[in-house]
Prior knowledge:
- By secondary structure, the protein is of the alpha/beta class.
- It has a domain at 87-247: P-loop containing nucleotide triphosphate hydrolases (Rossmann fold, 3-Layer(aba) Sandwich), CATH 3.40.50.
- It has helices at residues 3-8, 17-28, 32-48, 52-79, 100-106, 110-113, 128-142, 151-163, 167-176, 192-204, 223-226, 229-239, 253-281, and strands spanning 117-121, 146-150, 179-185, 210-215, 243-247.
- Helix 8 runs antiparallel to helix 9.
Amino acid sequence: MSGKAMDMMPAGTTSGTPQVLLSHHLKQLKLPTVLREYDKVARECARDGVDHPRYLLRLVELELIDRERRVVERRIKQARFPAVKSLDTFDFTAIPSLNKMLVLELARCEFILRRENVIALGNSGTGKTHVALALGLAACQKGFPVAFTTAAALVHQLMEARDEKRLLKLQRELQAVKLLIVDELGYVPLSPTGAELLFEVLSQRYERGSTIVTSNLPFEDWTSVLGSERLTGALLDRLTHHVHILTMNGDSYRLKQSAGRRRAAAMAVAAEQNQATAETGDQPSTV
């Protein structure tokens, strides 16, 4: 074939064909990391004298690592965390009443396999939500579906679903998650209907899935939220049958942090003022 004829051939039918086809096939197979990395890894392997099986192994490992990262990110998004927090950023020294070893053990997520519950009790601002979010994040990283909500938001969601004739569907969805986190039980009193709906959800999870509940109230005061001693007793009976209790009483963690930030800001302002005063005093007199 003449050079002129070769020039007239459609693009992608000569030397570019393997790359075009490879790109197409990798997209069809949903291997975006292999598509992104194969050329760079090929050059590295050629430079280092790596054989073809090890080259392929490197690519597959990169794809698996990236795929697991994407799966974890998807679980975190589906969990609807208000913020992503880990135990690495939690100050255990600020809450001496908290059993650190128990929290670290729970972060291994074996309690989820055993369908056990966790209840964090303590006054406001002591880090209960932070710990719950950190355990939820660990569960996502371990491969468990997680759902996060506040008690008030969950009750509102349940009542809305009941009014729209889709309560059973929502209850099945809540029952299906391996870990349900119900935050802030006790901050808002519930209506009799709301308390009954919340009881149903938590009862349906009994010995079927794990639940984390955080509350600013001791157990004896839960009646003030649920409005019924009978309902409170039945709920506690189910929640505490297989349970790990985290006691988190102490000074407000958030107030301590806020006070620390204010002190740091005040010290910074004072330092600037002192420096400005010193610089003014060093100026030669013009009199």
